[in-house]
Fold these 2 entries.
Entry 1:
Amino acid sequence: MAKPLIQLKDVTRHYVNGEVVTRALRGVSFDIKAGEFIAIMGPSGSGKSTLMHIMGFLDSLTNGSYIFDGRSVPGLSDDALAKMRQDKVGFVFQSFNLLQKSTVLNNVLLPTVYGGLPKAERIKRAKRSIKAVSLEHRSDHYSNQLSGGEKQRVAIARALVNDPTIIFADEPTGNLDTKTGELILELLAELNEQGHTIVMVTHEEEAAEYASRIVRMRDGMLESDTSNGHRRRGGYKK
Amino acid sequence: MNRRDLFGTAVESLLRTKSRSTLTILGIVIGIGAVILMMSVGRGAEGLILSQVSDLGADLVFVEPSSGDPTSGPPDPFVAQSIDLDDEEAMERSGIFATVSPQLLTTLPVTHEDSTEFYQVVGTDHEDLDIFPADLLYGRFMEESEIDGYAKVAVLGLEVAQDLFGDQDPVGQKIKIKSQSYRVIGSFEELGSRFFQNLDTRVVIPVTTMQRDLVGVDHVSFITALATGDINEAKEELRYLMRDSNDIDNPEGDPNLDNFFVSSQEDATEIIGVVGSVLTILLSSIAAISLVVGGIGIMNIMLVSVTERTREIGLRKAVGATYKEILWQFLVESVLLTIIGGFMGIVMGVLTSVGIGLIMMNFILSDWTIVIPLNAIILAAAVSTVVGLVFGIYPARSAARLDPIEALRYE
């Protein structure tokens, strides 16, 4: 059996704010294999976002071990973490986080700016990503001229542009209506079928149904970890 | 992130807030422009002052009455009478000087027909022209016999001649100085000014006649001479000569015991040079304050920009930007603002310097020269870059240090 892509063991994360210590994660262990589509669920404060940030190299863990693709992550320098974010992961945020007054193409190009690839190659990749989310006709539009669903598709294209090993989606349907939310989930499922590993944080049961595996969290610990045999395609309701 | 991307990203961000960028640049334009203008005006003033003495030879020496060092205060009125024609004769006899000439200056009423005007009357001798060469428009200068013979003759400055006789040849005409009659023997061409005295408004007569008949004194205002050998040796020998001639016991050479002061054209140039430099530094420092204010404007705007773009910074970090890449992005923005401002400031500074120079030359001081100091331009370019770096580093650091998670959540 292939080695897991992500191996977390007894991961804790404490935030110290003056005298107050917040224990966001209290010992989380689980693996993610390449090609999975995982939904991480849980009420707010359960630690699901912290877990995602740690896996996405945006936050560091307090204790425990994290091995990504055979490489130990704790102890990596800030620059090495930035390089991991650039090469290995793509992020999709609830509030899209697009550059205003910038075109779709330029938004998708943004992550490649830090890669050092030749310009022509970067544009080729960006166009491929835009095609993957079916927004070719919007390429030269400014991001503030787009609908919410289109914005999130741009964000997904941006996450795909550096050909990441894994995509993290943080409440990707949170700011969208049912109809467009469904389209985004369909798109993520489709990308998963094409071989992309996806981790999605959500608190919507309906959204989680699209995943192949559902992890539930409570109070900084795993509550359950079940595979989802009857993955939903279509019929998403809020 | 390669250089072109860095530059392109910075330009794009600056263009996104055009009016704000323009106003920030304006602060630097004014600062740099003011520094260049002030340096130019300072140099122009220095050049103007130097032009008053630089025409004179480097071997020119002055002896003037003084109680010690002339920089210590105004001369004692009794001391002001300490130099006379005996000193002049002693200097002539010493053989250190090629030419020696006394100068006695005062302002007196000069009358021709019914009109009376006050002019500067200068008593000197026939050797004056050897020291201060000047061309005559009509007639001739004074001769030795006229000095020795207390002759009542006068040579007129151009403006005096024009005031009294229009464009006519004044030679042979009579004028009255303090109601004594003098015969005009010549008049000068236009001479301009020297030591800030207008040479065209003076009446030159024999020093002997002036002492005895017009002013009734034995002293002269100062003595000028041209040294034959080394100027500094000549000055030192002149001091011994003057002490000897005036019975001053001063073997130590203490200037406070002397009742005279010896200086050269070179000394005057040096003092003026120092004054000019101080003036330039003073003016530039005042202008530099506006540059600092402009720099603070840059810092302020960059801090606002960092706050406004917190989410953008978070996003850039999330997609792989390193600390250095964010730092450079913001530094390049602030340096770009100051370089553009610096360039425009140089253009503005040069244009206003030329403009003010033209106004000075045409309306106020015809001797003014327009100086655009090249080092001021180089300095301005360097300073504007440094201002961008210095005032940009703090905002850039605060951007680069942002925590990506918090930055992404920032509302």
Entry 2:
Amino acid sequence: MSDWKMVIGLEVHSELATNTKLFCSCRNKFGGEPNTNCCPVCTGMPGALPVLNKKAIEYAIKMGLAVGCTINNYSVFERKNYFYPDLSKAYQISQLEYPLCVGGGLEIEVEGKKKFINLDRIHVEEDAGKLIHDNTGTMIDYNRGGVPLIEIVSKPDISSAEEAVAYLEKLRETLLYVEVSDCKMQEGSIRFDVNLSLHKEGEPLGTRTEMKNLNSFRAVSRAIKYEAKRQAEVLNSGGKVIQETRRWDDEAGKTYSMRTKEDSQDYRYFPDPDLVPIETSDEYIDSIRKTLPKLPQERIIEYQKLGLTEQDAKLITTERKNADYFEAVVSLFNEPKFVCNWICSEIFKKLNSSEEIDTDIQVSAENLAKLLKLYKNNTINQAVARQLFDEMWKSDFDPEVAVNERGLAQMNDTTDLEKILQKIIEDNPKATAELKAGNQKTMAFFIGQTMKATAGKANPKLVGELLQKLIN
Amino acid sequence: MDYLKCSLYEIRQMLENNEISSVELTKLCLDRINSTQNLNAIISTCEEQAIDAAKKCDQARKKGEKLGPLAGIPVVIKDNINLVGTKTTCASKFLENWISPFNATCAQKLIDAGAVIIGKANMDEFAMGSSTENSAFGVCRNPVNEDYVPGGSSGGSAATVASFQSFASLGTDTGGSIREPASFCGVVGLKPTYGRVSRFGVVAFASSLDQVGCFTRTVRDSAIMLNVLAGEDKKDMTSAKILVPDYEKSITGSVKGKKIGIAKQFFSDALNNEVRANIEKAIKLYEDNGAEIVDIDLPSLDTALAVYYIISSAEAASNLARFDGVKYGVRAKNFSDTVDLYFKSRTQGFGKEVKRRIMLGNYVLSSGYFDAFYRKAKKVQKIIRQEFETAFEKCDVIICPTTATVAFKLGEKCDDHLAMYLNDIYTVPVNIAGLPAISIPCGKVSNGLPVGMQLIAPHFKEETLFNFGDFYEKHAKEI
């Protein structure tokens, strides 16, 4: 295996989160009772005609721009002709010769090593329906038929399963950043095809196999590892890899031959005469460019300038909603590092412990900024800050009002605190002796007692200082 | 008074003057369809719907409501046009029992204009043919002489108007399917510019060439029909966003100073002498009335037929792939797997000509042949289009025969496919270039069969066709 080099190209199908389908006005939504969300157009009734949803083109261009593609001013929908029951017209409207976006790429990082993965193209096409099998036979649900997809095709620049996963993660992150797809793998709104071949350094490329419709990063990683090993075994034993499509069986952890090149389909592509070429002016493309959010790579550099570590900057930019939130809080309370620490600890803890997959941050940026300000300027101590944050997460409120109404401000008055401490020292001679002897663990006991006596409002730092003064 | 023999324009006035009610007129037409059943022009009538629509029209007229331009007038549509509640068979066994769930835009426009749709016209299966002999529901006969074909593919639509069953009808024209039958049956047949009339709801044969048009007994009627049919449709991306003029007003009664282009390629030896003589007389008439004759050159015209059969078959193969036995139409009873289901259903559902075109289309699109056929045909199409555009720099209208010969006998060309295909040599180039054209009756030959004259205009200049056509129609008896 060791001297074989993997050459991998990935095709990523991602459903676009438009309101309606690509060529009709049916809602673009997941699920629903079978065949309740379709019409003469997406079920291929005789005489029905497609009408392009311009929003899908806008979304595809947005993604293209985010990954540095050139957007073609002229692109064409073609018909990919093949028979399959889930394909209502017996052709899929897709793009071949003139795709919407070409070129571009993105940088990945594996074990500290950076690498640029080039894209071949991004094109727009429609999704097919779904077959449902049960013991009475096979049925077809056309609800998904006609949902807009983009197919993102990489160049064969990927050389390992780890790189493939890093690439897919980056791609998913970008799709979510530009908000063109919800990327819900469990709903199949993002799916992957893997093309893989082996060769030796300096030698021509080998014969590739294709594994279609993988639906998780884990499956992609396992399929690559399995298929590379299988091909290496074939080659090492003097055999030849056959160009074919192979099915990945996730349970068995194996690939199986589906069809070879000889019996592969001839799709007989030709421009769809029902649609006109898509003409996108530079002005239009620029207007979409203006709506692009700042992307992670840009934000990571910016955040580091604000004083965040690279690691924190990466962590907080993984998802756009967190980065946007971070920026919103910082715009109100200019303590980036302090804000970042709170988000990465307290907020991520909440998000990760939530049972729902896509929980939103429950505290408004305004209220978090206020809370952190109160904490930072010692109006409240950490315990109170956490307590309030917990309550705000459940039901958001203005922490300034709560601190005033509930008298939660920290006790910073030394005379009052001294009186309380004096009493605690008198009541606990044994502990006092230990503290005097230098046992710092007893300090916690004293702080605890003080908090108890002050309903948690004492400034712990001040308590420590006063205690040292009193016992000496 | 023989109401049925009136033009659409005349009957509209009679309806307006309450000389006859729409219900009475509709019944007369339905009776006429019954008494001329031997023509087999109609696949199905929609009596109930029609009488109901006629009643509503009569009531509205009584109340003095504002009525549409076709109010109360019985019309027929070709059976590849969807109309809710009717079977849209495309003259194919495959869709024998398929009921339209939605209206085609052109059908909806007729309804909105107040027309009473009384039936669906016979045709060549999926509009593939030039004689209406390829109908799964029997051949249609030419009303002028029943031993002869009415032309095709819109043979039923031509025959219904020629036999006074209806006042106008809709057809579709992909390579001559309106103009050729109009010529054979002695009526006016209009094929508008590609994109002028919405194709939404019309079962596609070749999407880039198909165009909805109409049959009428006069040129003015044709203009009235196009006024109703034309216009952009948001449901058809290939429909044109170009303003629709009032076509009836384009009839000026004069051709003085206008230029008529004559291409030698349209008057080759293939042209029947009697047909040639009639067309030449018509041209002379225009010349005598102040029109100027200019020679034009269309050197690539002889390639149009090949281009047509490549492009139309390619698109047809793809358009007809949806008829797979899965969702609607014929489903074979016994099948072993899905491939067998497709194979058997399509074998049983489609007629021979349709199968021939599907095979041809898949062949020209298949890898290894695509560049040599489909791509080359698209290139030649551009050249033909350019040649017409150059020609129209020198003239307002091009005149030629609609067909090289008059109607042929039933069965005469059934086994000679090339002869059948050659029938379309004068009409096909117009579709290849996307131009508007009209066929108007131009006398008869010695056996009594009508000749058709084809007028071709630049893109979206249907007005020119109506003006020239109407002029000839009014002055023809002077010849």
